[in-house]
Amino acid sequence: MTIIGISGSLRRGSFNALLLRAAAELAPAGTTIAIESIREIPLYDADVETSTGVPAPVQALKDTIAGADGLLIATPEYNNSIPGVAKNAIDWLSRPPADIPRVFGNKPVVVMGATPGPNNTLLAQAAWLPVLRTLGTAYWSGGRMIVGGAGKLFDADGRLTDEPTRERLRKFVEGFAAFVARRI
Ligand SMILES: Cc1cc2nc3c(=O)[nH]c(=O)nc-3n(C[C@H](O)[C@H](O)[C@H](O)COP(=O)(O)O)c2cc1C
Question: Measured in angstroms, how far is the CA atom of residue 77 from the centroid of ligand 1?
Answer without folding.
Answer: 5
